[in-house]
Automatic annotation (TrEMBL):
The lineage of its organism: Bacteria, Bacillati, Actinomycetota, Actinomycetes, Kitasatosporales. SMART domains: HDc. It comes from the Bacteria. PROSITE patterns: HD, HD_GYP, PROKAR_LIPOPROTEIN. InterPro entries: Cyclic_di-GMP/3'3'-cGAMP_PDE, HD/PDEase_dom, HD_domain, HD_GYP_dom, HDIG_dom. The chain crosses the membrane at residues 65-93, 105-125, 145-165, 177-199, 205-223. This is Metal-dependent phosphohydrolase. The keyword Metal-binding does not apply. Keywords: Membrane, Transmembrane, Transmembrane helix.
């Protein structure tokens, strides 16, 4: 990593000065040192526990118990004392990127300012009295305001460091930050409020610690899900890279088919879970090419009928390869049937109309669209409008008209911004005439 921009250093310095100002009134007679020490130790312990990631290195950092403890401190302690609770844990934060020391200092200053503000807002609204009296309905309003204040300060500082360190435009630096942070912080706020109420109850701090148990369990479950998802992505990435290496002429094609398939899925109202599986189908639709001899995939001249029949086996090869990968679900049928045609003239089984699975009908349109709009060694890419016109001409015979219409609507709204094409990635490849085509894509 290169030197830190001066603007970023100024941002860190200002945050540190703000944190010091928040801690300035700490040594006074109202500071409950025992509660402060216990909460600070608990916060640091949660941070240390989060370093032990049972789900592996891909597990999300932070166990979800860090913010509930911070917010419990904001609900229980005066502002300066609550701010100090954040300091030990923040300085122990796991940092992957360099410079680690400056990043830890930034995180500590950010949390100190945010927790001090939350505690200040909570106290101004009479929140500490409602916690002592355990008046739950009345305690929710000041606690909610404190969470909003915490989220606002974290968002403000996160956006500021993006502008200063990453040179993100100011008009986009804060876009969506607050909304993405609010929901998880609201859950943490409820857990923190429960901790504070139990802390002040006759059962004492020991009962408050029980709130952290379900938070840890939820983190562990989420970490397991995260690990499984990372494994899925790694499996797909390895398969796609293998296909791209073997058939370099269509490098990037799989990712673009996945993207176009997602555009169609959103347009026809497919739910998010199925749409994600459909994206896998688009990305892996040509994985069966791994079973086709490389000399056929890279042949510069026209294919003989026998060679074309061998290439047309790739959907069955692909289906056989992924048959045991459970998380692909419906994607397996798309891999097998994406070369079927509505009129029954496709392969491998000549299915007709609705006999073709929905995923396969989507991928067929996405596959043909990207094949036509990508540059190949034997022809230039067609304009998007010309490709859509060709799809519409073949709708009802080769393609499902509903999927063609959905793609056209999605492109009209969002446009098409493909990645680098195969020829651009392989400079110096001589262009061939259409008569010498090694045409294996799905263009009509």
């Amino acid at each position: 990593m290169g030197p830190i921009p001066p603007r970023a250093l100024c941002c860190v310095a200002l945050a540190v000065l703000g944190a010091l100002a928040c801690l300035a009134r700490l040594p006074d007679g109202r500071t409950p040192w025992a509660a402060l020490a216990l909460l600070a130790a608990l916060c640091a312990g949660c941070e240390q526990l989060s370093r032990w990631r049972p789900a592996g290195r891909h597990a999300p950092q932070g166990m979800g118990a860090f913010f509930p403890v911070l917010l419990a401190g904001a609900f229980l302690l005066p502002p300066s004392a609550a701010a100090l609770v954040a300091l030990p844990g923040a300085l122990l934060t796991r940092v992957e990127q360099r410079p680690r020391r400056i990043r830890r200092v930034w995180r500590a200053a950010q949390l100190v300012v945010a927790v001090w503000t939350a505690s200040r807002v909570h106290g101004a609204l009479g929140g500490r009295e409602s916690v002592v009296r355990a008046e739950s309905p009345y305690a929710l309003v000041p606690a909610g305001a404190a969470v909003l204040a915490l989220c606002a300060v974290l968002t403000l500082l996160d956006g500021a460091v993006l502008v200063a360190a990453e040179r993100v435009p100011a008009r986009t630096a804060w876009r969506g930050l607050f909304a993405r942070s609010l929901a998880p912080l609201a859950v943490h706020g409820l857990a923190g409020l429960m901790m504070a109420v139990l802390w002040r109850s006759p059962y004492g701090p020991a009962a408050a610690l029980l709130v952290l148990l379900p938070m840890y369990v939820s983190w562990w479950v989420f970490a397991q899900y995260h690990r499984e998802r990372a494994a899925h992505q790694a499996t797909i990435r390895a398969l796609v890279q293998a296909v791209d290496i073997k058939d370099g002429y269509t490098r990037g094609h799989s990712e673009r088919v996945g993207r176009a398939s997602m555009m169609i899925a959103r347009e026809i109202g497919m739910d998010d879970e199925r749409a994600e599986v459909l994206r896998f189908a688009g990305i892996l639709h040509d994985v069966g090419k791994l079973g086709v001899p490389t000399r056929l995939l890279r042949k510069d001249g026209p294919l003989t009928p026998e060679e074309r029949r061998v290439i047309e086996l790739h959907p069955e090869y692909g289906h056989e390869m992924v048959r045991g990968i459970g998380f692909l679900g419906e994607a397996r049928s798309a891999i097998l049937h994406h070369h079927e045609r509505i009129d029954g003239s496709g392969y491998p089984y000549g299915l007709v109309g609705r006999q073709i699975p929905e995923f396969a009908r989507v991928v067929a349109v996405a596959d043909a669209f990207d094949a036509m709009t990508s540059t190949r060694s034997y022809r230039r890419a067609r304009p998007v409008a010309a490709a859509l016109a060709e799809l519409e001409r073949c709708a009802g015979r080769q393609f499902d008209p509903r999927m063609v219409t959905a793609l056209a609507r999605a492109l009209g709204r969002h446009g098409w911004h493909p990645a680098v094409t195969a020829d651009e990635a392989r400079p110096g490849v001589p262009a061939q005439t259409p008569g010498g085509s090694r045409r294996t894509e799905s263009a009509p």
